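Lay summary. Proteins are chains of building blocks that fold into shapes, and those shapes determine what they do. In this project we predict the shape from the chain. Here is one chain we studied, written as its sequence of building blocks.
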Amino acid sequence: MPTLKGARVALLEARMTGELSDLVRRLGGVPHAVPALREAPTPEQVPLFIDALSTGRLSVVIFLTGVGVTALFREAERLGRLDETLTGLRVTTNACRGPKPVAALRRHDVPVQIAAAEPYTTGALLDALSGVDLRGKGVALVHYGERNQALADALTSRSARLEEWCLYEWLMPEDRAPLAGLVRELIDERIDAIAFTSQIQWRHLFRVATDLGESSALVEVLNRHTIVAAIGPVCASALRACGVTPDILPAHSKMGSLIVALADYVELTGEG
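And here is the predicted shape, written in a compact code that computers can read:
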């Protein structure tokens, strides 16, 4: 088992903070959890989506996250329309970007006909959809916390009758002080490593640093001192766009794999 050798690891994950912190501790690190976002549901979208599903307007439904599936089912149940929703999804072709929406659908006996391969990117999803004729078909794209413009454009270019749905939003934490504190701790070199499990975490941290007038200092310290782990190519691309070169990209785009890869890196290099 690799060890983090006492490294202080910043974690920006909002939903699985406890699990990731426990894993860091088990691997001999010190977790410093500062959630970088909050997920705000948009329940007003759900009845409109169910209407589109129930009237047969949709032939294909694409889910990008398990959070979107969960938000849909939770609000549908509150509205007394869960059975109607499940019935509609059981007669559509359902496609998922990653394993989490697949698992969330299958827990309700909803079949998933199309699933993207690792690393679960937009490109991988489009590859998985390449054999499906979308011309003139009603296609629902259930986004993550913001619109995936590239995916929407690609589906429209294939002549799909695209309908887009955002069942939750990614927002800044209501209290930005912990993120501001993390920026200062990073710049002061009091954080040994930082783990990004989504690109929005980096964007929010960078925005706070920019507001503090410390964006250049943050980029400099991440490249020079702090070990930077990014969960996959989308996250890594967002970091590189701002001048940060990630040190670690795990072989599998999963949170646990990210922390284990970080421990492997610390053991291999002696950093931390």
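What the prediction tells us: The radius of gyration is 20 Å.
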